[in-house]
Each structure stands twice: as C-alpha cells, then as structure tokens.
Design goal:
21 strands; alpha/beta; about 475 residues; 16 helices; globular
Length: about 475
C-alpha cells in the first residue's frame, strides 16, 4: 500500500517522495496500523527501521517499481486482457468511452479507466486522477480480469507516465491523439511533456500503435515507429493524410458525417457527436476496430450508435431556448476547437462563452484562453473554475491579461453560477452557450474543499 491509513498487519508500505507529499513522513503511522515491512527510497531510514524493529528494503527510484511489484502480486492481470492505452492532450476520454460503447454493443465485456472514473462499462465510478496510482490500477485490472473483461481502454496521462503509475501494465495497443500545451507546470517544457507521451509507444510487449499524423508530433512518431520492425502494426489516421482517412466532412448540430477511406474501401460514416475535432476521435476508434478484425460494415453500424461522453460537447436542448453545450475544454487548443466547431454550425445566432481556468495548474495557458475566447465567441463571461488554493480574482486577471485592449466583448463575473445565469438570460433562442472547463465534474474545489457544483444542474435551473 501507498496510503498509511490502509496499512494493516501483513501489508508492505511503500514510502517515497511524491509531487506534494513524502510517503516517508507516514512510515510511523503505517507501522502503528500494523505494517511490518517497509520499502523506502530514503537511505536515512535505516536508523528508524532499527528503532522500530521492522523489516525494510531500500530501493532508489521506488516510484518506478511499485507498479511492477503490484502487477506481480496480482498475477499480471493486464496480460490476460486486451489493454489499450490512449495518450495525448485532448480526446482521450471520448476515445476510451466510445471503444467501450462499441464493444458493449457487440456483446463484449469491456472496462474503462480515466478522467470520468473506472469500471466495467457502463458502471463507471469516479476517482480523483486521470490515471490511478500504481497499486489501485493493478487492483482495478485484477478485478476486471476476475470478471472476465475482454478489453480495457484507459487514459494514460503524461504525469502518470513520468511517475511510473502505469509501470507493470502490459499494453497491447497505444493510441496517440495530439499534442498541445498543457501540464507545463509539471513538465516545465513542451519537449519534456512530449518525451513522456511518446514513451508509451516504446513499451515492452506493445503490439500495435495508432497515431494521428495530422499532428506534427504524430508524424515524427509514426515514421520513427515504421522504421521499428518490432511492432506488429503501426496504423495512422487523419483528415489531411493517414492510412485511415476522413474526407467530405459535414458538421451539423445532430452530428458529423464523412467519407471513410481505408485501402480500397470507402463508406459513409455518420456519428451523432458534434465537431470536426471529434472526427479525429472517431477515426482513432475505427483504427482499433480495424486492427481487431471488425468488418467495415459492422464498424459503420456501431459508430452510428455512439453517444457523447458526459461533459464532452454535451448538449442541453430545450425547445425555444438557447442551445447550451457543456464541455471539459480546459486547454487553449481544446477551447479553440470547440468554439471553431460551434462557429461552423448552420442557422446559429451568437455564441456566448463561459470560461475560467483551474488554480494550481499551468499558468501560462491562462492568457491564451482569454485571447481565444474573445476571438472566437461573440461574448465571453470570464469566471472561476476550480480555484483550489489560489484566489479566483488573480486567476481571472491572468486570463484577462491575454485579451487585446481593443476587445470589449467580455465581462468578469467571479461567481460561476452567476456567470452561467447571465449567459442564459442574455441569450436568444437561436444562440449557443458554451460552458467550458469543468465538463462532467460535479464539484467546485475552493480552499481544499470540494463544494457540490454541476454546470449541467446550474444551466438547467436557469433555463427553466
């Protein structure tokens, strides 16, 4: 265990320094709770171990090995399931859920692990991280294996790769979506961020790679992997290029339609999800289905039945009221994608955007978000997101700093509920309101406390 509160007699407590806390500070508590074996990354622990008469091992870079130890303990569960790792800045959640939706509709038991939670589909329960800690992850995989799950699609974040959370997991397939600015507060540079992302594609025992080559990082990765004959399959996708391509794209309020081309086969794909950027996510899903031997006619049928993931271009449609869209867009590229998509919808009125930025996260993206919002929306309500331990006013001021002085199409409203209310009250029936940043989240985190808050619930209340 990593949590000293979960330590019991017979448990091994693994103590190492994390991003915010040092597990070595909780060794005493773990011993008090019954743990009689400690693995630590701290040389100074010898004196403590002698004092409390417990067995111990010292292992440098312990964080990189805990997942391997946990996998061994649970009899390497990922080796018994087709495990798909999806990485990239945007699109991970949609791809993992749509894979689960498709396989569930085919009568094949599947599971998902990611931002919205984990579970055998569709019974997904939430937890705090995109990718769980290494022990929890192996426990999930062990549980799925015991329940005869055939396929697991999981989001693999760059931070999880850096911290070794997925070490010990045997991935059958890795999918790369795209790379734009995010998590620079953790990685420091975009180069470091990319280095962690691409490490998934050199994973031991990896068989397949699926890559978006309309992304410049994807292009370089694709050709590097094509020169590597170890992988069984390297499949690319895109709109401008790719082994699997989409053309003649139509973006409508009821979904997207495009012509799919793969080798000598062409067929029309209709997916009830909004936005050109979602065409890429659909293509990634199709690539995996192709590699898994699903026929093109079955692919066409099942893609037509997918549903938006909660909080990902999720619509609230009310007769004779403005269309409200709730989306998790919390990076500059994601926000720009969503707003540009909405601008292409026919018969729309104005686009109103409610946007903020989370506290204690990449500060460099805040002015970018402000600039993108006022450029692509007719009117913007700059508000609070999850400020965490930061002051909302300071975060908002950094967002506004990116807005050109000549722009006046925005207002500051720190209270998120009030900002949503004002957007709805100021909208006409044919207007579109985008509430960006929180998506599926059912809380707002302020000063370390999670207060119940749902963009959906607030919007529905004011729409009444």
């Amino acid at each position: 265990c990593l949590d000293s509160r979960k330590a019991t007699l017979g448990s091994i407590f693994c103590a190492y320094k994390g991003t915010n806390i040092d597990g070595n500070d909780y060794i005493q508590e773990a011993i008090n709770n019954g743990s009689d074996y400690i693995i630590t990354d701290n040389d100074d622990y010898r004196a403590v171990a002698d004092k409390y008469k417990v067995k111990y091992s010292i292992l440098k870079n312990l964080s990189q090995y805990v997942g391997v130890l946990a996998s061994y303990k649970y009899d390497e569960p990922s080796s018994k399931i087709k495990t798909i790792g999806v990485t990239g800045t945007n699109g991970k959640t949609s791809i993992t859920h749509w894979l689960n939706q498709v396989y569930t509709s085919m009568g094949i038991k599947s599971a998902v692990i990611g931002t919205t939670g984990a579970g055998v589909y569709p019974n997904v329960k939430s937890f705090n991280l995109t990718t769980p800690d290494p022990i929890t992850l192996q426990q999930f995989l062990s549980q799925y294996s015991s329940e005869d799950v055939n396929l697991v699609a999981m989001e693999v974040s760059s931070i999880a790769l850096s911290q070794g959370r997925v070490n010990g997991t045997q991935f059958e397939t890795a999918i790369f979506t795209n790379l734009t600015q995010d998590h620079l507060d953790y990685h420091g540079t975009l180069e470091n961020y990319w280095k962690e992302k691409q490490s998934l594609f050199y994973w031991q025992n990896l068989k397949n790679a699926i890559i978006n080559i309309d992304d410049e990082h994807g292009v370089h990765l694709y050709y590097k992997l094509k020169m590597n004959t170890i992988l069984a399959n390297v499949l690319s996708y895109g709109i401008d290029a790719g082994d699997v391509r989409a053309s003649h794209i139509k973006v409508k309020i009821e979904g997207v339609e495009f012509l799919l081309t793969y080798k000598d086969t062409q067929l029309v794909i209709k997916a009830p999800v909004i936005g050109k950027f979602n065409v890429y996510n659909v293509l990634a899903v199709i690539c995996y289905l192709i590699l898994d031997g699903v026929s093109m006619t079955d692919i066409q049928q099942h893609i037509n039945m997918i549903k938006p993931v909660k909080g990902r271009m999720d619509t609230i449609i009310t007769p004779n009221k403005p269309l409200v869209i709730v989306d998790f867009a919390h990076t500059p590229a994601a926000l720009e994608n969503v707003l540009q998509t909405l601008n292409k919808i026919e018969h729309k009125g104005r686009i109103l955007c409610v946007v903020g930025c989370g506290g204690e996260r990449d500060t460099a993206k805040r002015p970018l978000m402000g600039a993108i919002a006022v450029k692509n929306a007719d009117y913007v309500f700059v508000t609070s997101d999850n400020p965490r331990h930061e002051e909302p006013a300071e975060i908002i001021s950094q967002i506004v700093a990116g807005i050109p002085q000549i722009k006046s199409n925005y207002v500051i409203e720190p209270n998120r509920s009030e900002a949503i209310k004002q957007a709805i009250l100021n909208a006409k029936a044919n207007d579109i309101i985008l509430i960006a940043g929180k998506g599926h989240e059912g809380y707002q985190e302020i000063k370390g406390i999670k207060h119940e808050f749902s963009d959906f619930a607030v919007a529905r209340e004011f729409l009444k």
